[in-house]
Amino acid sequence: MQNNCMIDSKLKVLQMVAQHGTVTAAAEALHYTPSAVSYRVRQLAEELGVELLAPSGRGVALTAAARVVLRHAEVLYAEAERTYAELAATVDEPTGLFTLCGFSTAASRLLPPAASDLRERFPRITLRVIEAEPVRCFDLLLSGDADLALVTNTADTPPASDERFDQKPLLDDPLDLVVPEGHRLTRLSEVDLADAADEPWIVGSPGTTYHHLVMNACMTAGFTPNIAHHADEWETGTALVAHGFGIILVPKLARLQDWPVVRLPLSGDAAPVRRVLAATRKGGRDHPLVTAALERISSSSTLPVVRDEA
Amino acid sequence: MQNNCMIDSKLKVLQMVAQHGTVTAAAEALHYTPSAVSYRVRQLAEELGVELLAPSGRGVALTAAARVVLRHAEVLYAEAERTYAELAATVDEPTGLFTLCGFSTAASRLLPPAASDLRERFPRITLRVIEAEPVRCFDLLLSGDADLALVTNTADTPPASDERFDQKPLLDDPLDLVVPEGHRLTRLSEVDLADAADEPWIVGSPGTTYHHLVMNACMTAGFTPNIAHHADEWETGTALVAHGFGIILVPKLARLQDWPVVRLPLSGDAAPVRRVLAATRKGGRDHPLVTAALERISSSSTLPVVRDEA
DNA sequence: GGAACCATGCAGAATAATTGCATGATCGAC
DNA sequence: GTCGATCATGCAATTATTCTGCATGGTTCC
Description:
Two copies of one chain form a homodimer. By secondary structure, chain A is an alpha/beta fold. In chain A, helix 2 crosses helix 3 and helix 6 packs across helix 10.
């Protein structure tokens, strides 16, 4: 996808200062130096005839005028994205760089086939895949370093109402229960999450998305899990399970190493899922490369596709 | 008012090429050289990854992609204008240059008092008034050389649907009949346009707005005028009237030199008017300086104000 | 066929943006 | 309090970008 021509880059600088809170952090995100950022914001402020930044502590704070500008900037960027999308749709052979990003599992299981498919259908596009946490995915979208992101919702993730992004539910990734081989639950024909209420649990570190996900799932199923261990990677968790330290929940999308464990699909209404969202910059959802990528991901996935119109 | 920051100036260049048809004319309007315009358009095209201009005869023609870009550019500019307006409304003391323009009569009768009033209310604003034909007024708005224009509708004027402009009816300027002193019509207590059906008429040159205006008025009143002479300036027309060559219609707003003529207000339903419109760039209508200027013009005018919401 | 007009490319000039450091100011820790 | 860390900004030098002036090649009109 092309970079932001159309909108003056000074606005992007201001937006980055707003996003990252400090001039220095904005500079880092833009691959600039702090003094360049400072200079450009000052310049924008002069051209607009208003103050945009005010010193606050050792950093800066946005003025009311800056917030006005940023609110309108969202509209501008969305319109620019729609333009790029429309142009790409009218051109026979889109050209340029298209970057997909997504959290670990998505990056390993969903993005490579989609990218490969796109490369075949649009040979003149250079494709790039970045594995990044959801929060960083949104940063990548905003800075133009990525064009489509697969994310899950976390507490740090922008809300759906954020006018800078489009977030569309893409598919639901159900969670499987992983138990050691020969575990009592493997003898049941159908396993419900509540069946595992008395087991020792292995969850993510407090505060992580995975921790919340498991906790919420258990609460919904009607019990508070007995937390025996913490593990933040599937590999670690699976190893603990294999050695009989407890059980874990893993998304279907996640591939596990070869351990003596059994993956049990969960049934019942409370069967927990991890919802995968497709995020773009506002206005970029209809870009032909975006729709092609999402189509491919939806159609090739064995997971339930969310047919919701966000 | 501030110049166009926010939107990349390359878009303005493309818009100017579209508006003026040739690279050379666009360059002139932007105070650039043709090669600079050519360079910038090429650059925009490269950044967007599309062709924007194609050679056509000895000039250039816009591609479909260029038209797509321009359609979106209209939205961008409108949003930028709304931003400027909102910023100016939040700032206690607007600063900068504010330019009013209008056709001759408006420039001499309506703009000076409005400008004077603005200068008093906004001392830090530099005011500028430009007298220009309606068509050029729109060019001035587009190029940012003017911020508010008083125009009348002509055949060359952009239609109300043009998304680059806001055109709001401001006031109706009724046309008076000008006859020599002692003319038979001066003895009537009320004069209808139809009463002048048999007089020799002095109108503008064919094709001018004034010509159309008079012709339409007469047609509406139910007669085809007997055109004896053509005069494009009030001064000339009045002189001809004074010497008994015929009669003319002049807008109430127009001041006439001291000739032995009588101005007769017209009554009746068919009483012709010249509608004065206030034009701004799209989105600029709510700028505090614009609203202040229009308020002043409306309130100080003895002419019927159009209370229409355009 | 020639003159006028138009767009574009290129080298050099003018302009603008960016860096690298130095300064001053604030905050937290000890 | 004082020191070190963090942050923003200003300035001079460097670097990148943009613009001009002219030359070229194509097109139209007379």
